[in-house]
Every structure is written in C-alpha cells, then in structure tokens.
Amino acid sequence: MLSIESFKVKGVEITIAVLWDEKIHGIAYSLNDRKFAGERILEVVRFLGRRGILTSTEVKKSEYPKIVYEVLVGNIGNPEGFEYLSLKGLTSFEKKVYEWLVKNVKRGEVITYGELARALKTSPRAIGGAMRRNPYPIIVPCHRVISRENPWLYTPKPEYKKFLLEVEGWTS
C-alpha cells in the first residue's frame, strides 16, 4: 500500500509518502513539491523490487506518514520510529549501519562519514553507499551523516538535508 500526506513544518509544506503493509517498507519525502515525493517513492519501489520485495502502490490511508512527521518534529524518537520499519530487503551491513545511526546520533547532532566508518570498522565509502540506499529517510537519519569538508555534499537535494537538520536544531 501507499499512503501520502502533506504537513507544514516551519512554514514549509513537506509531503511524506510511505510504502507499507504490516510495517513500513519505504519512505520518500519532498518539500513544496508533491510530484518529487511521487518520483522518489517509485525509486524506492524499484529498489525494493531489485531486492525481492514486491510492494503495492495502491493508495490507502494509514497512520504511517503521520508517524514519520512526528519523528521529524521530535515528538517520536528515531529509535521508536525504527520499530515501525520492516527492514525487508536490507543487507546485514545496512541493518547494522542504520540501527547504529538511529541509536547513537541524536537530533541536533551530526557525524561524518569517516567517524561513522570508524565506529563500525568499515570504510567511509561503504557508509556512503548505505546512506545512498537508505529506503527510510527521516526515521533512519541519513541527513545527519555529513562530509568533513562540506556538510551538503552527497545528497540529491542539499536544501532538503539542510532543512531537516535545521528542523532538528543543528546549525553549521
């Protein structure tokens, strides 16, 4: 199923699209552009399909977009939000990275790719790949992982990353 809902955060409309059945399979969001959320959720559908997870895009209302919104604004913690995720189709490495990130990097904090790599005894490149493939943005806060040289690198929409970090109280 697919649920899509829009919310206002700091005067900005955020559209949150969630693929789900019993739990959340994937999340996409966009700022002031509902069409982009639709495009991103189709990318998540393709990603999950390549991993053997078939999802329906039949639109049906659910509580899941509101839960993602509540995580974004801090009414629900990322660890609590993590419980709603199916984690289907993820590698053991991705699960390990996402779980560590959710448990250890709190709202208003950031970590560099290198620091996260050292914590998990892997390479920054491997961390970057896991962040790029994250099907659960906001709940798994890949936006909190930044480059040492420039926090806005390695993201399709730097203004989205900046917005999420500002909502959480981080300032560069």
UniProtKB/TrEMBL annotation:
What high-level taxonomic lineage is stated for the organism? Answer: Archaea, Methanobacteriati, Methanobacteriota, Thermococci, Thermococcales
The principal localisation class reads: cytoplasm
Gene Ontology annotations of biological process type: DNA repair; methylation
The enzyme class is: transferase
Q: Which PROSITE patterns is this protein grouped with?
A: MGMT (PS00374)
Assigned protein family = Belongs to the MGMT family.
Q: Which Gene Ontology molecular-function terms are recorded?
A: methylated-DNA-[protein]-cysteine S-methyltransferase activity
| Keyword Phosphoprotein attributed | no
Gene Ontology cellular-component terms for this entry are:
cytoplasm
Q: What is this protein called?
A: Methylated-DNA--protein-cysteine methyltransferase
For this protein, what is the EC number?
Answer: 2.1.1.63
